[in-house]
Design goal:
- 62% of the residues lie in helices and 6% in strands.
- It has a 6-stranded mixed beta sheet, sandwiched between helices.
- It has helices spanning 3-14, 32-46, 65-74, 88-102, 104-112, 119-129, 150-162, 179-192, 203-210, 218-228, 233-249, 255-273, 283-287, 291-295, 302-315, 326-337, 342-373, 380-393, 400-412, 416-430, 434-438, 447-463, 466-472, 481-488, 492-500, 506-515, 525-542, 546-553, and strands at residues 21-26, 53-58, 76-78, 134-139, 167-173, 195-199.
- It has 4 domains: 3-201, 3-Layer(aba) Sandwich (Rossmann fold); 205-340, no CATH class; 352-463; 466-553, no CATH class.
- The protein starts with a helix and ends with a helix.
- Strand 4 (134-139), helix 7 (150-162) and strand 5 form a beta-alpha-beta unit.
- It is mostly helical.
- It has 28 helices and 6 strands.
- The longest helix is centred in the middle third of the chain and has 32 residues, at 342-373.
Length: 557
């Protein structure tokens, strides 16, 4: 039933004095109570309501009819007043009305007479008798206490209608009672309820209810929740609250990064809050999704296939879903904690920004190659001009093998001048990237390209002093190949000179760096040579004097 039809039925129910019982049922979090309250406020401000008094009663944790009756009495308000909720003042008013109905003198007599020990019980009975010709809303039927039975609640509801001329609303969730009480409720439903509304709003209805329209990104969040098909108001509200936090934290970044954060957050929040639902993808499965496993044809459970289709349809509109990146996983941590680690989130956003920038630039380079691959036209100049221009623009993102392929085209088409220019430009722009020039260019035979790369590699080796390498490894758990290459080239005499020239607390740290490879069971030959020569240098230092002998013994030499 559409939400507008439900509102209309509720309006019709409220405008008469006729005693009747309205049932509003539906799934948990769908907005049943929200819609009822909204119609009630609307009627207060615009149209007359049939009855003046109203009580909203949550059955959550209520364990007896006795407690339930008192709760109704304690929550009575005048529905036409500006005060929409029961409080101490409305309760005092109900007590005063009770006293007036007995007569002031009689009320004080019963209260003070020593023989009337059951005065409290009498008051409680009298308070229930005042609950006449009013509107009463019972909410959370399926969260009542175990001591209160469904048939007792329905019996009271029927009594209030038939004996007290009340209009009663019962709001309940589907499928939350035990099997016996579900059966009991079904049995009594037709006998008790005059109007039985099944509340099943569309995702669009729910997003309209949960998300205010006065935010710049409201439409965006509504689109995400509607695309997923979320019908739970609480879930949508959580998504909206988290989206406000993400918008604020990522306001300095481009729109596609913000959109990725919001899109991921909406889907993962849905999964996280509905972990027990068979209709929602498993949260951990989505977090750890492996596209390689899917592409490899590895056997999957039928449920996982359904989840995969949901992921593809949501994130990639029917195409391939690669899985979550580190930025998405940082967003996931915020969902779990209900707050985002600003430093970590911004760090991952910066990394993603650089990656997207690189991809945008590289797309220009690949577009230049389209003039080579996708036509048989005699467009030599156009091809070379495009490759020359894009190679310079994207120099930071082109690999050595891509450079070699580009140079080959220039050589073949006899444009050696620009080929040499590109090589020098590439080397000059990226000469500080040591790893780039370390490995030999086995994928090209261009002599000038090989020569320039080898020259940079040699210069880098010469420029970096062993002391700089040792110092850079202090307190680190790893090392780069070039670090090992430089230190393994040192002889025992070199280590001797390095150690003898140091003064200060860092000396012991340097010695520890050089000897650490002795403790590694699978150390390479180069690593073993480093520790061997460093130890030999320290033994030599220990033979120079009794004082130095004591010093090296202190470090187990």
């Amino acid at each position: 039933m559409s939400i507008e039809i439900i509102r209309e039925q509720t309006r019709n129910f409220l405008k008469t004095k006729t005693p009747e019982i309205l049932s509003i049922r539906g799934s948990w979090g769908a907005g049943k109570t929200f819609t009822w309250n909204n119609v009630l406020k609307e009627k207060k401000s615009n149209l007359p309501i049939g009855l003046d008094r109203y009580a909203y009663v949550s059955l959550f944790g209520c364990n007896s009819l006795h407690d339930l009756k008192l709760t109704i009495f304690a929550n009575v308000i005048n529905i036409k007043s500006n005060n929409h909720q029961a409080n101490i003042d409305t309760f005092k008013k109900s007590i005063q009305d009770l006293g007036s109905s007995w007569g002031g003198k009689a009320f004080r007599f019963f209260q003070s007479h020593p023989l009337l020990k059951n005065f409290q019980s009498a008051i409680e009975t009298a308070s229930f008798l005042t609950l006449k010709e009013m509107i009463i809303c019972f909410d959370d039927l399926k969260r009542k206490g175990d001591g209160l039975k469904v048939r007792e609640v329905l019996g009271l509801v029927l009594w209030l209608k038939e004996q007290h001329n009340c209009k009663v609303v019962v709001i309940s969730n589907d499928k939350l009672l035990c099997e016996s009480e579900e059966k009991e409720l079904k049995t009594y439903r037709e006998k008790v309820f005059d109007i039985d509304i099944f509340f099943d709003p569309t995702p669009e209805d729910c997003s309209e209810i949960a998300i205010p329209s006065n935010c710049d990104f409201s439409i965006k969040i509504k689109n995400y929740t509607n695309k997923i098909g979320i019908k739970n108001i609480r879930t949508i509200k959580r998504i909206f609250e988290l989206s406000k936090k993400l918008q604020l934290l990522l306001e300095e970044f481009e729109e596609n990064i913000v959109n990725q954060a919001l899109e991921t957050m909406a889907f993962l929040t849905w999964c996280y809050l509905h972990k027990d639902s068979e209709e929602v993808p498993c949260y951990d499965y989505v977090k750890n999704f492996s596209s390689s496993r899917v592409l490899s044809g590895e056997a999957q459970k039928e449920q996982e296939k359904i989840w995969n289709r949901l992921l593809v349809n949501y994130f990639r509109s029917g195409y391939f879903f690669p899985g979550l990146d580190d930025f998405d996983l940082e967003v996931a941590k915020g969902i779990e904690n209900r707050y985002f680690d600003e430093n970590n989130l911004l760090k991952e956003a910066q990394i993603l920004h650089a990656k997207l920038l690189q991809e945008n630039l590289r797309s220009g380079y690949h577009e230049a190659w389209s003039k080579f691959y996708y036509t048989f036209e005699q467009n030599d100049k156009e091809v070379l001009d495009a490759l020359y221009r894009s190679s310079k623009e994207n120099v930071k993102y082109i690999s050595p093998s891509e450079l070699a392929k580009t140079i080959q085209v220039f050589r073949t088409l006899r444009d050696d001048l620009r080929a040499d220019e590109l090589i020098k430009f590439y080397v000059n722009e990226r000469k500080d990237e040591r790893v780039l020039f370390k490995n030999p260019l086995g994928y090209t035979d261009d002599e000038i390209l090989i020569q320039e790369f080898n020259l940079v590699n040699e210069n880098l080796k010469a420029a970096r002093q062993p002391e700089e390498v040792i110092h850079s490894l202090v307190g680190k758990n790893g090392w780069r190949p070039e670090d090992i290459e430089i230190l393994s080239s040192l002889k025992a005499d070199d280590f001797y000179q390095i150690f003898m020239n140091q003064n200060g607390e860092h000396l012991l740290e340097w010695i520890e760096v050089c000897l650490q490879f002795e403790k590694i069971s699978n150390a390479s030959e180069e690593q073993k040579i480093i520790s061997k020569n460093a130890r030999e240098a320290l033994v030599r230092i220990g033979t120079q004097s009794q004082l130095n002998s004591l010093r090296v013994k202190a470090i187990n030499i």
